[in-house]
Amino acid sequence: MNEYSSKLLEIAVNELARLPGIGKKTALRLALYILKEDGSFAENLSSAIVKMRSEIVFCKKCNNISDAEICDICANNKRDENTLCVVEDTRDVLAIENTAQYNGLYHVLGGVINPMDGVGPNDLYIRHLIERIHTEEINEVILALPATVEGDTTNFYIYKLIKEFDVQVTTIARGVAIGDELEYTDEITLGRSILNRLPFESSIKRS
After folding, report:
1. CB of 95 closer than 8 Å to CB of 185
2. Are residues 200 and 155 in contact, defined by beta-carbon separation less than 8 angstroms?
3. pLDDT 10s per residue in the chain (207 long)?
4. Cα–Cα distance between 112 and 150 in angstroms, integer?
5. At what angle do helices 149-162 and 126-135 cross, to 10 degrees?
6. CATH of domain 7-55
7. Strand runs labelled E in 88-179
């Protein structure tokens, strides 16, 4: 017997439940909400999702998601082009932007080094980062990766590659707790961590 009384409802619930953090009960509640709303809501929602999936691209300069070849942040001539903040993914860009405490550019790695998951340096945009430091007038590189073992490993790997370059290498202050992802850190704490960043070499000595 179909517990949902409708095979179509069951299919919708199963698809929604594939989203991270969405269990079957929440998926059912969302599906019933969509079903209750005017037909245009479902059409607009599905159209927005399909359009997002097919038309969003990655910025050729920083690898952040974008609607154009160059994202709005990289294209903004009011940003500090001499400062580069290295982050794991787009969620971290959004988290830092929400603090309104940073006005430089970003470089999105697309992940962190994690041998257990089969992710090595060549799977990330590390080579592209080195190219940017070579070709752009970068004075400071801020390593703003998660305060996890994988994040620290990636920070150190990058530091070893760029420490001889004529750039200052800093990291966000440890106002962000060990093991925390940036996206889950409150804006005030993250903002202070950005403002109170310290030389990366000092962070190595402290750890």
Report:
1. yes
2. yes
3. 457 789 999 999 999 999 999 999 999 999 999 999 999 999 999 999 999 999 999 999 999 999 999 999 999 999 999 999 999 999 999 999 998 889 999 999 999 999 999 999 999 999 999 999 999 999 999 999 988 889 999 999 999 999 889 999 999 876 544 445 555 556 666 777 777 787 877 666 555
4. 6
5. 40
6. 1.10.8.420
7. 104-108, 140-143, 168-171
CATH number 3.40.1360.10 is the correct assignment for the domain at 62-206: yes
Q: Which residue has the tokens 């997002």?
A: 52
How far apart (Å, rounded) are the C-alpha atoms in residues 95 and 100? 10
Q: Closest by alpha carbon to 146, among 105, 74, 91, 81?
A: 91
Cβ 100 vs Cβ 85: under 8 Å: no
| CA atoms of 108 and 74, how far apart (whole Å) | 12
SS3 57: strand
Which amino acid is present at 167?
V
172 in Cβ contact with 145 (< 8 Å) = no
**Tokens 């359009």, located at residue:** 51
Supply the pTM of this predicted model: 0.80
Domain ranges of the chain: 7-55, 62-206
